[in-house]
Amino acid sequence: MDKIVLRSAVSKVELKRALYIGTFRAVIGGLTLLAVGGILPEPALENFGILAFIFGIGMITWGLIPYKRMKQLEEEPYSVTATPHDLYIDLKKGEPIKIPHAAISALSFEEGKGITIELREPQKELFLPHFSKRSFEELEEILFAI
């Protein structure tokens, strides 16, 4: 074994769910902007217009950011590289994390969420989101093959 690279994958169900929830939030924000702008009289807009504007734009942004992050993850997935002695985890937040195989005590998989790696010293858990069951099985085979 030279090295094996495993990559995360965003499922269509996760992507669709993020899109629906995001669209719902964005519609609430848009309707707030339309309702406040169309219904409130001018004196009330002077007092509450800026708050309604901030709320509406905030809801639109809050709705669309998770979908954007999922699409970015689809284009640039997280990766786990297994070499004969070490595991390199790259979650796109700086330098990859290097973990020796001997430091890993257990692996677990949660459907729809990802892989959890339990370390011996210090006793910590690392969570790897959006990895598939197949990636988990390959990683388990590499780490615990005797």
Characterise the protein shown here.
This protein is α+β, with helices and mostly antiparallel strands and 146 residues long. The chain has helices at 12-39, 42-75, 133-144, and strands spanning 4-7, 79-82, 86-90, 97-100, 104-110, 114-119, 125-129. The chain has 2 domains: 9-75; 85-144, no CATH class. The protein has a 4-stranded antiparallel beta sheet with strand order 1-2-3-4, with helices on one face. Helix 1 packs antiparallel against helix 2 (42-75). It is elongated, with a radius of gyration of 22 Å. The chain starts with a strand and ends with a helix.
Outline the secondary-structure elements.
Elements lengths: L3 E4 L4 H28 L2 H34 L3 E4 L3 E5 L6 E4 L3 E7 L3 E6 L5 E5 L3 H12 L2
Antiparallel strand pairs: 1-2, 2-3, 3-4, 5-6, 6-7
Helix pairs in contact: 1-2
